[in-house]
Design a protein that fits this description.
The chain is 68% helix and 13% strand. By secondary structure, it is α+β, with helices and mostly antiparallel strands. A three-stranded antiparallel sheet has the order 1-3-2.
């Protein structure tokens, strides 16, 4: 797997709205969260959350720590927070441009 494949896998994982919301949530909280916390936060089934966490893990975006019977998830790197910040800035620029076009 080369660098382009890895970059594409990361972006593909984040392209799904639920996975994007999960990674944003995990980047904003100060402690690892178990699946049940994430299920409660998004009001989705445990199987849906677990399968999406698995994809995020496979893409190298989340860290998994087993504590007894619990499995806790957190963002794997501060680079993820930087990426989310860049996406937020891009979306703000897009919205400003779109608003300018609408005013014309």
């Amino acid at each position: 797997m080369d660098r382009l494949d890895i970059e594409t896998e990361i972006l593909r994982a984040l392209a799904n709205p639920l996975r994007f919301q999960i990674i944003k949530y995990l980047s904003e909280v100060n402690e690892p969260k178990c699946v049940n916390n994430i299920v409660h936060r998004f009001n989705k089934s445990q199987s849906l959350i677990s399968s999406n966490l698995s994809i995020l893990k496979q893409a190298g975006l989340v860290k998994v720590v087993k504590e007894g019977q619990f499995v806790r998830y957190s963002v794997k790197s501060d680079s993820i927070k930087e990426l989310l910040s860049a996406v937020r800035k891009l979306s703000e620029e897009y919205l400003r441009t779109y608003a300018t076009i609408q005013e014309e």
